[in-house]
Amino acid sequence: MASERSLRLPAHEASTNGKRAAEPRTSPSRTRLLTVSAAAKVLAAHPNSVRRWADMGLLPSFRTGVRGDRRFRFEDISAFLNAI
User: Fold this and answer.
1) Would you say 7 and 42 are in contact if contact means Cβ atoms under 8 Å apart?
2) 28 near 34, Cβ under 8 Å?
3) pLDDT of residue 28
4) Which end of the chain is more exposed for a tag (fewer CB within 10 A), N or C?
5) Please, which residues have CB within 8 angstroms of residue 49's CB and are 6 or more apart in sequence?
6) Domain-by-domain residue ranges, the chain?
């Protein structure tokens, strides 16, 4: 069940050694966006599954840059986990 899963950020995004993480350089109104790989780690799924869910409209995503890379809001991933 989704409630049994614990939401954990990838190691490079979590604070280390119990120390407080550095403040983000972006404004507080901007949310943290995750890459396809980072979203896949949080969801414990393959990156291609994350892409497919985004293409199907099940998982909201944003496109960035010239290549159109996908980015996912952590809040959307959390809501997706709670819905399944």
Assistant:
1) yes
2) no
3) 40
4) N
5) 40, 43
6) 33-84
CA 74 – CA 38 distance, rounded (Å):
10
Using alpha carbons, list the distances in angstroms from residue 18 to 8, 24, 25, 72, 81: 15, 17, 21, 26, 26
Q: What is the pLDDT along the chain (84 residues), one digit of tens a residue?
A: 454 555 666 555 554 555 555 544 544 446 789 999 999 999 999 999 999 999 999 999 999 999 999 999 999 999 999 998
Instruction: Provide CATH code, domain 33-84.
Output: 1.10.1660.10
3's tokens = 């409630």
62-64 and 33-34 strand pairing: unpaired
pLDDT at 29: 46
Q: What is the rounded average pLDDT for all residues in the chain?
A: 80
Q: What span, in angstroms and rounded, lies between the C-alpha atoms of 52 and 8? A: 22
